Amino acid sequence: MTQFVPAYIKTLRKGLLGDKVKKARSILSSCTICPRKCKVDRLAGQTGICKTGNAASVASYHPHFGEEAPLAGVNGSGTIFFTHCSLLCIFCQNYGISHEGYGFEVSTNELADIMLSLQSKGCHNINFVTPTHVVPQILAAVEYAAEKGLKLPLVYNTGGYDRVETLKLLEGVIDIYMPDFKFWNPDIAETTCKAKDYPEAAQNALIEMHRQAGDLVIDESGIARHGLLIRHLVLPGGLAGTREVMNFIADRISKNSYVNIMPQYRPCGRAAEVEKLKSRLSIEDYDMALKAAEEEGITRLDRETRRVFVLK
Fold it and tell me: Is this structure's pTM higher than 0.85?
């Protein structure tokens, strides 16, 4: 069996990782990292919608056993939850982190040390949760950690609101892309996130992610090594546009896409501002979403979440 070598190790050996770090950091002086394109000078401490300046902030980090089985494995996925967010869904289940800013600032070296500590715990990967707004900081820390012995696959765990230009900086760095495709209807995206361009941005992002990484590859021990894993949170009343999302994945990405159709929606944060989001997801809505996916040709579905479906 050929030993797996993470993408960033190959890029580091070619002497290209440092160039990516410099280019990404330069963008912060008039920030266009995400589709919001706030154009604030984050290097000078200015902040835009993501409320993040020069340094990244972390809310928590630990081995996570609740992720998809190919990520969690036996020893857990080494998750790093970043503070703040550039999408800001009103129903976010991590509202205190994304909207209210719970967390602490970390330096490049400190973020690298967090990755190395998760590796020392036996985690199967390093899982960057809500990373879009801190791509430059992540790249810098990955370079440092790789030089210090990091050798785990990197997971880019995002809400799907990403710019293709930023994702291209991650080519040859990220092994596993794990975007959510949240909404198909621009009006729903505007109501819930003030991001009417979300559906278009997510489509372009998924196409680019798949171009870089391909379909999800899982080794003989059941652990994901590289590729695209797509998440889709089913919302009450069909607000997520599940059938249209699945049709897009089958038609424009790949019918072999590994997709997790998630049933765990519950009203959090400011969800009550939208009538249909006031209640939990019904079993009927979830079953309809699974049926729609299969009818659109998506059959490589993660079924683990069925076991944790709770209706209250």
Answer: yes
How many alpha carbons lie under 13 Å from residue 228 in its C-beta half-sphere? 24
Measured distance CA(195)–CA(38) in Å, rounded:
13
* Cβ-contact 34, 40 below 8 angstroms: no
Q: How far apart are CA 38 and CA 180, in angstroms?
A: 23
Residue 304, burial from CB neighbour count under 10 angstroms (0-12, 13-18, 19+) = middle
- On the 0-12 / 13-18 / 19+ scale of CB atoms within 10 A, 163 is buried
Domain ranges in the chain are 7-308
Question: CATH assignment of 7-308?
Answer: 3.20.20.70
What does the pLDDT look like over 120-153, one tens digit per residue?
Answer: 999 999 999 999 999 999 999 999 999 999 999 9
Chain segment 183-238, per-residue pLDDT in tens: 999 999 999 999 999 999 999 999 999 999 999 999 999 999 999 999 999 999 99
For residues 3 and 216, what is the distance between their CA atoms, to the nearest angstrom? 17
242 residue type, one letter: T
